Protein 1
Amino acid sequence: MQTKRWLLAMIAAAPLAAWAASGEFTFVVGEVTVVKAGGQRITPAKGTPVDVGDRVVTGANGMAQLTMVDQARLSLRPSTQFLIEQYPETKEGAGSAVLNLLKGTLRTFTGLISSVNRDRFVMKTRVATVGIRGSGNILYACDGAECDPSVRQGNAEESLTVNHTIEGSHAVSNIVPGAAPGVPAQQGGAETLITGPGQTVLVAGGRPPRYIPTPSFIADVATNMTKANAGDDSAALAEARVFSPGDVLAILALQQTTVSNAGNNPTIFLPTVDATRNLVSDPSNLRDIVIAAGGAAFIGQAAGGDVTLAGGNFAGYRAYAGSGSGITPVIRGGTLRDATSVVVDGQAISLGRWENASLGFFGAGSGTQVPGSIHWVMAPSGYPTYLAEVLTGTASYTLAASTSPTNQDNVAGTLASANLSVNFTNRTVNLGLNVTLPAQGSTPAGSWQLNADSIPLALNTFFGSTGDRVVITNGSGQSSRTNSNLTGSFEGSLVGIGLSGAVLGYGISDRTASNAAQWQFITGAAAFAGPRQDPAAPYREGRVSDANGLLADFVRSYGTTDRPDEVALDAQGQVTAFSAPYQRLGTHATYSIGTAQVVQSGFDPETGMVWGRWGNGVAQVARAGSTDQVFLNNGASLHYIFAGTQSGPVALPLTGTATYDVIGSTSPTDINGHVGSLNSATLAANFTNRTVDASVNIGINGQTWTGSAANMPIYRDQYFSAYSGTPIAGLPNPNPLTIGCTPNCGQGAAGSFDGFFTGRTGQRAGLMYNLGGNQGAVAFGRRGG
């Protein structure tokens, strides 16, 4: 409301003419005629008023600009017919503005009416309506053979409409003959696409609107609508931002918008999505489950209904489909020990151990006897999924419950002390455990201290081993730093809404004794309680291509979740720095553009999603004093796609299906510097089944590549992925990526799809693809908004 009052006051104070009509001509060039509502024909000049019912006709050499009572500017190209159906006669006047483009080309920069109430300003043609959600567009209407060849369809008699957004956004809908207003698309009504700067939409006949590359004749119009003298202030020019699907950035210097940055984010372009209403509960109702046995531990996830119980206690689970692991751990037989449950921040955590039981990972019949005990701990999964990666500050977690640590002979000991501290700012975990076991038979008493510093956090989970940052010391003074016979690891997660708890399993292997009969393999599980964190911390989800080919062939991209200030943008919404993993530098290294350039870019004004690629230089990647270079001056490219800033997780619809259309993309590239084209891309979501189907077709270096994946499981309402082949040895790949190529792909072509949903209900989606080393990014918008 304050913005509207400010706008009204500014316009009221401006030295406007005493309008007696809806507007006036501010310049006229060549043949221009006004046909009044009563049929009278006049030749306008600068200052001639225009009224409701006037039809303006420009000849083959005619152009004109109108300035309306609310300071909207309407520019007409040659061979255009334009009708003012409705328009108030004063800037505060009641009523709506309805502009009808009968044929030709109209460029519009809207004024006060659309700023104060955008629903009151509408443009239309024979086949489409354009709702104003912003300030600038180019509208083109034609019939059959009169249409420009670049947009002409198969039916030469069809009426076409093209709308190109320059600034703000627009809602483009098809007019369906015979359909009543307000009838949903699925019932035969109109369909709507929302456009952002640089996006172009085509409506042919009564068919639904679709995104198209910006035709050159539209870009030419955007560059110089009037071709007036440079000194004429009526020739206010604006360059087309051809962001989708071609994504060739071209903005005239005089029209580049200066924006105020808040945390490196240009707020005028990229809004924060408020999804805090999604924080009530985890829609997936997942459980984090840690199983520790035989001196090792691993973590998995399952929906509450997919957990198997024996006598009311945990005995296995079917892995959450979104994880794509396909495993079904099962514990059979044995004697239950140490079963207990604790409540942390109102959420129950259960744990226990099974003595002399069997453990299998692929359901009934897959188990083998495990020496000692199988320990387990189960808790509600951490929510939101990404939270640990975007919080700041530190938190200490204290031991709430544990199982008795046991060795391979089921000698039960004590977890004498345990402490867990989290540095959210650094995205790391420190852990300290002190384990003791009594003597039994020929096995002497023992004690072990496990300490870990700066263990990385990823999606609320953590893992450490003596192969990296874990140090174990036994009671005789032996250290894993110097003795390879003393090893161990742990795995766990931060759990519950707001991460107020933690669970972990650990294993220690001590083979330092000269007598093998005295070797010990110790296992245990524990639960912790800590302070509740703010679940509404803002974040930006993203995907980044592997420009230097450091990752496995079937991956070639990095997933990252950033704090908003870690994604740096310039005034045009181009990404110049971000945080993401890098193979040689670990997680959340800082990428900066260095001497490279943003050679393509685009953004979605509705959600703030941005995409593009760097090239033509050397980018820098730095972490903890180490710096690597990403060489892009040999033609290679680094692609990126980041969701906008969002507070709260995505909550997809619970049922139904949706089709997503391409709203932007980067041109595919390979590591050798070839640049290709995105021929097509599709994405469809089945919300009932929580799956995604996607396909990509590209042309590059004389080859056509296709990739398709069906029934990709959606993980935690936000993420989906598919890989070719069987990337993880010993595990199934139930939903693989299928790759094809003509004329010849060669042997063993590998690749991946890696994507995410964004927006409060998943209105947008981002995808990074790799097809045989050819990489690119695609931005999708859900049909219907």
Protein 2
Amino acid sequence: MSFAHTKIQQPRPRSSLLLSRPTLERELVQALCTQRVVLLCAPAGYGKTALLASALQQLPERHAVAWISLDPGDDLHRLLECLMAALEPFDLPWRTAPEGLMAAVERAGDQPPTQVTDELVNTLQACDVAHGVIVLDDLHHVDDPACLSFLALLLQRLGTRWTVAITARHEPALRLARLRALGELADIGQAQLQFSRDEVAELMAAAGHDAAQAERLHERTGGWPAGLRLALGGARGSNLRSAIDRQAFEFLATEVLAQIDPALREFLLLTSVLPDLDAARCAAVSGDADAARKLDQIERLGLFASVVDDAVHTLKLHDLFRDALQHRLRVERPDDWVALHQRAAAVETDPVRKQQLLLAAGRLEEAARALVDAGIGLLTQGAVSTIVRLYEQYPPAFAQASAELQMLVGEAKWALWDTGPAERHLARAEQLFRERGDAALAQRASGRRAVTLVALGRLQEAGVLIESLRQQPLEPDARRLALLATTWHVMEAAHYDSVAAPFMELVQCLEEAPALDRWNNTIPAPRQTSCRGIAPALARWASGAMAAAGDRPVPLHSLATMTRAWIALWQGRLDEAEDLLARADADAQWIGQQNISRNQSLAMHALLDVARGRHAEAVQAVRQRVAEHPPTYGDWGLWHSLSFAARVAAACGDLASAGDWTRRLTALQPGLPDATPERLRPAQALQGTIAWLEGRAAEAIALWREALRHEAHMDLLGQANEVRVRLAHALLQTQPLARALPEAAALLEPMLARVVDGPNGALYVGASLAALAAVDWQGHLSREQVSTLQGWTRLLAPQQAPTATEAAASSPGAPQQDLLSAREWEVLGYIANGQSNKLIARAMDLSPFTVKRHVANILDKLALASRGQAAAWYHAQAELQR
């Protein structure tokens, strides 16, 4: 949790200090139980939060409340993190991990996150509560467009089981007109919140005052609740003008402060810099060892404070009162302003609040250091947009001169695939680090920039930078980045035989410091997994990534499983590959499928479908992959996607699709950056395949032979083995056997010498491989080599249709209880006994992440919507077995 816990704690104003509004409270309670949205909108001091908190305490049983207090600087990621944490006690039946939904919304960028919002809405609707209220307190603090766009979408789609209650000083930009027109929004504005003459008369009568005094008070305050509170609390001010505004409140607050104990007044002034008041923080800021007792005094005296945490007695001052205190602090103790903010920042764990405190004090250097210190955690949690927004709060001249800020925002923009700006920030960081003589950090910036340059397709610049790094002694992080850049560089330069060595070094480097953020940045691409001799390094990478991910719902877990699936696929272990792919897809679904996992999954599904003879499914998978190509991957990424799609279509005999994708690929090539002959070599082999399918056998054979002369550059996603099998088979079909056998055998020998790599690209052409395995090689291939061919043929044989018995076992009529694992049955038993996720985790010695995943699996497998339905199903099964 990267935010203050008090942000999700419902405040508890002392009932004895509230100004009673029974009629308005009844109306509000009714609205909270029936309306989709309740909006309390009025200027400061109108008692919005106190009224709402009081009404929420009057909700019927089994009504849930998820409270979120919003601060200046809160963005979409902060809102979602608070929302998910606030909903945690209600054990929502998540079908996608909350962390995955947060990441998916972040990835949506400027696009409305419709799918994610629907997932959230469906989960809220399936929650086992009678009714729920999500509170967004002080929404006027939020100015993040992505946050407001998300909330507008959520309000439009929210079901009947939950209400969103909003407090704000002005109407938020949430497109509320439609909800008003439909009668689904309850408006409580300034007119309803201000006290009427009759209400003021009742208050004054209860305090022993007559009607004339009540009339004068109403005239002076205009029914403003904050003014009434101060006046009824004994503040002087008979000479105030008729309407009490914010400035009048500050005067009245001064009057209140003048009447309390001087030591308590001093304490309030010094601690007013704190967003929340607890004894430890107050003591650290004020130096007052008696802080706990003074907090009790503040609450007892009703000095515009609410309790926001009972476990650690914590108060929150009303914004107006806090502002008035800070105004007095600036007037009376201007020299202490900076020091107090620094002390407050020193004990603040919320990175955004810490930033606000230091910037308010004008301590830019300290603020920058604090942001950089929090940066790794924010990046790991996916709060990359938060980092960018915090960076933008600095004066441009200062930000441009801060090496650490440039490095951090460069890494954040890299995580957002905003690679051009990322490279510029990293270049600036590298320059600044070198100018101040910090070689280690300059190297790290260089390494990250080299990776970014490769991603941008600027291979020549990247190569120069990588070579420079290799000439220097490198600290571990810089060495890791240099090895990552080297791996990517040789792969992008089409030196596929040279990828395994630097990648193995990279894995060894990662194993020395197995931090999650380091493994996250090194995920192997599909074309990396087919490189010669890379399988051992991939296996070690997958094991290390699994260990780093643990049981946390992070994409690394799914992608490590996917990498193991690639190993099995290229080695011809298709059943294992399919099983691992299913597990990776399930993991990706749980954590919220990212572009990278979706991209890899479609590619592997296509290859497995090719190998299994499911040709229509294979072509559809690559068609979908091309359609979903992320623009941020650039034209080279599209070139690779088209190349792969054309090869799959050709393997399936779909000449029309193969030809279309090949033409698109060819048209793209003139505009590609650094389009060397080596990088384009795979297209030559593909042209040979198209020629063969079109009946131009001689041209195909010539193109394949020429491509194999540059095999190290052509071997993209197993293309070398594919072409060797295609060419060997073509020679045997078009030439006399005595002439064809020697050349065909010579073509197959290099791939048969690399048995450890498996059939690899031969899986594109299983039928041709089977034909070669059936040939009488007349001694041109050894018995062992022929045996290898035959073994690969058996591995890649198309899958047989399931038997009637197998089909029945997998049909919807099969016993549902057999779908659950033993562990899932155990979890379901606890659910049926009314246990919460937290208690189940404790009883089974599991993490809460794992329990949520088990619940999702149970609901998916049994086609149920909620925990309540799962409990009923369990009891019904128990009844049947009696």
Protein 3
Amino acid sequence: MKWFGRPDREYREELEAHIQIEERENLERGMSPSEARQAALRKFGNALAVRDNLSESRPFHFWQTLHRDMLYSIRVLKRSPGLTATVVLTLAVCIGANAAIFSVVNAVLLRSLPFPQPEQLVLLWGTGLALGQRSQVSFTDMADWRHESKSLEEIVAFQGWWNPTLNWDNRPEHVAAMQVSDGYFRVMRGAPLLGRVFLPEDQVEGHSRVVILTYSLWHDHFQADPQIVGKTIQLDSVPHIIVGVMPAGFHSLPPSLLTRSPQLYVPLAEAYDNTQRSFTHLRAIGRLKPGASPEQAQAELSVIADRQARANPDSNASRGVHIVPLQADVLRNIRPAVLVLQCAVLAVLLIACANLANLALARSGARQKEIALRAALGASRFRLLGQLLMESTLLSIAGGTLGLLLAYWGVTLLRKAGSSMLLDFPAISIDWSVLLATGGIVILTSLIFGAAPALSLSSTSADECLKSGTRSAGSASRSKMRRLLIVAEVALSAVLLVGSGLLLRSFVTILEVNPGFDARNVFTAEIGLPEAKYPQRRDAVAFFIRLIARLKALPGVESASAVSVLPESGKANHTGVRIAGRVDPPGQELAPDVARITPDYFRTLRIPLLAGRAFTEQDDGAHDLVAVINQTLARNLWPNQNAVGQKIWTGSGRTWRTVVGVVDDTYQYSRDSPKTMQLYVPHADNGGASMTVLVRTMRSPDDIAQDIRTAVSQTDPEQAVFDAATMESVVGNTVATRRFTLFITLSFAAAALLLAGIGLYGVVAYGVAEKTREFGVRVALGAKRWDVLRLVLVEGTQLVVVGLAAGLIAALALTRFLSSLLFGVKPSDVGTFCGVGLLLLTVALVASFIPARRATRIDPAVALRYE
């Protein structure tokens, strides 16, 4: 036989003809059919191997082989369209979910913040105060650090919670303004597109009426006017001159540090007495000099802070400074959640691969003769392994391609569902990094779920398979492998379910915490009065008195009030307090949250009054100054005493205040944070131009929002309303990260549980099919249906018990990494572990019962003829 230059098909057809002729001759010699076939294959089978070995000398052999394997794999997959579609869709969902979550990991953890040399940017926080390790700093302390530091090239102050009313062409609207000291744009390495940045003289009170626009505000609001520099706009009824426009590529600090992304910048004019070091109201950011490290800067500034404390014991005793790299500070809360999500979605992918490997192993019995014949014709094990892996690779590529399309949709969903959690990372997208990572996942997936059946089939003995004439050859090893895969699936599912269960219990525990107020049916809206139009406190007080009177007169309104800082808003103002006869050590003075409120505030939010009375209209400061405190502050000031009637000095007040009431604690930040001391003072005697109105009503949010805007316009047509929202949404934002993480992990856990159940069902069902003859014999010998049922159920449950034991042990070791995401629940919570065990055992019984019930209905007469 000549094969040089001949097509493979023609050569193989001729070879098969020779084999058949030799087989007939062997039969005539008295051989059995199987012996005749084996002898013929031994005589001619090496011919194909010789051809393949000689062909390897040709440089294009590899690509020809690859092409042949690909075409053959496509034909094999087309024979089972239903199975192929199931595998591709399963892989598409799992790979798409991995790509979507990895896009978040890439944007959050792997990609640097969008600033020049972001590793040099550090935040400077005050320490040693009662507020913890992240307090703000005073202007004077920051100025000392700025002048004395040798490792930081610049330190600047900023504030990001001013929301002035912009009036341009008689169109008032609220904008987000960031107040920055001179040098801010040098720290952030930003050069203006038009005009200039701020100068030191712009920081002087009275000379700070200048403003720099962001590119988006300039482009959208001012129609990208190239002559905008030098023009005047009104901010809170005060004229400001536009001196610059920043380019589109300039990024300000992350929104989580500013409450919102700024639309314009104004100078941070220091109007306060710079000698008041105790007035900590600023945030500071610096840039390290080239070669300097955060540790060097920390050591240097700690020495400066110690010197400040010795020179100013009244204000700076026990006060220090803590330097944190900007990226680490931004990621401090989100990093654990993102890592948990990535680990969860990888676990689901592994479970899916194990399931598909099980499916392929169950199907491999039907291909034993095909593989054995190819091996007998001379195909090496390596060639068979490559051919089988080609099939899994094609499935993975198809699943990965479809998965990327799903990932684009998934990224959009993640942006919406996790908008508050991912606020600092708007550039979450499917980029080249995600595509490369997805390609790696496709390759890994093809190896994971394709290796088991490929190794099993390629190691099948051709002689044994062809002699047996059945599909049972190698079934024992494949059955063992399928069982091991199920154990691995159950173990991974147990770990994922325990983690999800702990997060769920934490979330439920947080929701069960009594917030101290009732957020239902309360609508909020913020109003900021311009100082230029309301220069006196009494003017602002009069505005809110008139406004609240109008709101109370609205139909369906139960009560209305106003507060300077909403509870559970994440914001707070602080003030020092002291009482007669008590002297706190320097640096350890009590500094409770302080809020200005109008009468009916406690009634509107239904905050329980524990002692004394609430504020009335008569508490206007004309006579005695009064205060209401929460029970935590009362316990700190007067333990085991009645706080009502006691005197308290508030630091910002003109004289001592009399405590007239004690109310229940509320959470100022979130319910998973410690309770804080709280001090309430009447708005009427303390003033305040920025307040949030609260309206309790059963009416729809849209209707009451419009009525609030109308009431504000009737009170002052030049004022606008912003941040209008229900109180429930304000409270919900405090648990947004937990809710988002919980939703995703629960979804993945449910998918893992479903996949594990399907995989277990498949293994048990295939085992029943393999043992049809055995069950028939048992029934024929007198076994009861219950005996067969119990036998199958025990077999399935045993697999789950082994996997469950391994999974719970692994979960016990891994869940400690969830500690930062848990609240009120230990990582080793017994209830969660027991609940997961019962759930998996229940799934095992359900998945095993269906094939077990089928086994009990086997007809012995049919089973004994089963081959």
Protein 4
Amino acid sequence: MDDERGPESYIARVTGSTNVQIGSHNTQHNVTVDAGTLPPPQHGDGTGRAPHNLPAQSAVFEGRDITELSGLLDDARAGVVVGQAALHGLGGIGKSELANQYARARLDHYRLVWWITAESRESVTLGLTALTRRLHPMPTAADAREWALGWLQSHPGWLLILDNVEDLADIAGLLGVVSGSGHLLVTTRRDLGARWRRLGLHALRLEVLDRAASVRVLTDLTGLDDPGGAGLLADALGDLPLGLQQASAYVSQHEGMTFADYARLLAEEFDRTADAAGEGEGDPGGRTVAAVWTVTMAAIARRSPLAVAVMEVLAWFGADELPERVLTPLSGDPGEVTDALALLASYSMVGRRAGSVTTHRLVQAVTRGAATTAGRSDAIRESAIRLLAEAAPDDPVDDVTAWPLWAALTPHVQAVGERVPGGQDLPEMLGLREMVATYLQYQGNLSMAVVLHQRVVSDSERRLGAGHPDTLAARGNLATCYMQAGRTDEALALHEQVVADSYRALGADHADVLAAGNNLAACYLQADRAGEAVPLLEEVVTESDRLLGADHPDTLTARGNLAAAYLRQGRVDEAITLVEQVAADFERRLGAGHPDTLAARGNLAGFQAQAGRTGAVAFHERVVADSERLLGADHPDTLTARNNLAAAHLRKKHIAEAISIAERVTADSERLLGPGHPVALTAREHLAQAFWADGRLSEALRAEEETVEHRRRFFGPDDPATLAACEHLALSYWRAERRDDAIVLKEQIVQSHRRLVGDHHPATLAARADLAGCYWMVSRREDAVALQERVVADRRFLRDDTGRGSFDASVILWQMRAAMDPSLTHRPGGLNSPGRETTG
């Protein structure tokens, strides 16, 4: 209904009220408002709900709670103006949608709800003008703005939403004028910290959705019943609401498309996919992940070109926390880099916490795409690689203080490496990969270390050639990693090839050839081939003495390995004498606190313990004390020394001491290195042995089960060390009268051997024969005979020189058949009854 009054009634006029300032400090209008003459809203929806101009809401709203926002607007804490709040966060995070959902849910609580796009001062004025025209026609826009402000001041119970505020100066005057009368909600990408509180607004930062909410958004919007695929796609999209919405629209409009299809498109054709909003996309303005941050970066560029350069470099790193000091070389003044990061953080383009910076993966992808379009991606990527190389510490193995930095840098080295096109590796990238692989290797993450070492070998062969010393060294490092991972056959083959290639490429009198021979000999020892290790090591020691000198660390290392080989051959006195000299030489050459010296002394203690020498436990205790003092209690070598001390106590039947030490080492190594680290696994194995010795059956079994679980998770079910742990657990089950559990585990072991080496390999045959004996013991006689028949047939197929293996299997088969059928009289020979406990 139209008002009958003339135009002058719509301008605030003097009625005896107090003066108020309307507008900014630059455009002040001293007016007064007569609340009694201002009209109420003319239009409602007939339901008692407030008139509004809210945009369409999403039918799917997940992962957000309007309760917290409601509490902020109703909060009456001292120093904060009641009813004002600011939602801030990354573009596309869902700030506007949360504001919209809140407003719609609370329409019956307000007299008026009004939405203003507040990207500039002019857009705020337009929004206020539209509000006036909604309440009552006005003759001019200038009058309309002031009228709207007067109405808001004089009428309580409204909600005003200022969406997508870019500059606080655009709304600062408005906040001062209308505060205290109704509720005012600001959405913005700007994170301005204490400035929000000075303006009287509660600040609420929105983060990405949790994974469960992301999955619900994708499945609800598309109707696809594929939570697994939705989870993988949500991960690729970084759980960003706008990305999820855009992906859902795209998938829904392409018949037969799956979440995996879209994820593949996103990886292979990011620019096109990220720019495709889909028909009828409900996001205001049809925004896409490719466009949503372009305006923001343009605003940042106007303020700081350095901030743009920082953002472009960050786009090539991982989404994990990156130490901010990595970026310092981007400017001659570290403070300028800090200011650039602060500006980026204020626009929610990055997150900052405790000296680290994070970037959303979609923001990174869009930024990389823009750099590629501009032809600058190669230069930016190379800058990122050189920044990482400059920040990387020198020693990823023994420098414990550098481990936290290596842990922080590792995901970024891997991320940059994955984004380097083939054939474009910088030398710095090869070096970074090699050091990260070594760090992961000695932290116990052997599966990932193997993958990275393999990549380094491939890249070195392509860039430098197969015979280059760096390539040969990389292959030797890969072989050593294979050894630590229990892949002994692969390690041996590669080490032998490295020795041959090094000799051919470098000549006999080269230190790298000697190092390769030493590594091969160590691998022979791991494979229990001491007979081949001893002559090779003796030759390496002789040549190292001649070429490098008797005190060179490589010579001393070879002599230590030779001592271990002597011990394996039962040459105990020679082994102990030699390792005593090695330990003394290391101490004289490198000092008592050097890790190599402590390792040599630990080997000496272990040799003495294995030989049953008195005082071995005391020697181990001194090694532990020295390691803790010189390396620190958390160093892996210290934990290894404590492991060895627990083993020494076990040999001496000091069970209580062994349990106490093994429990502490297990807890410390899992905390510091992770449950899959070799030190942690060895500690848990020692703990299980100690529990068995103490008669604590259930605890021993639990420790062995956890060992198997960790080995399967970190190294895979077919890893040799995993299979050995399974064999031991099966034996323990059998000893504990858990025969069914033992048989299930042994059946799995047989299948693993079949996958690894085939049906006819001796390891497979031995596992089958053992399983056949188990079947017999639990009265599964037909299963036992059938399996033993297979063993006999396969042993004949692989008959050894003596034929003894086939003969033994045949005898056991005859005994089984005779037990089932006493009429059998021909006996091929005499062996133990098949009724023996083959597992124990």
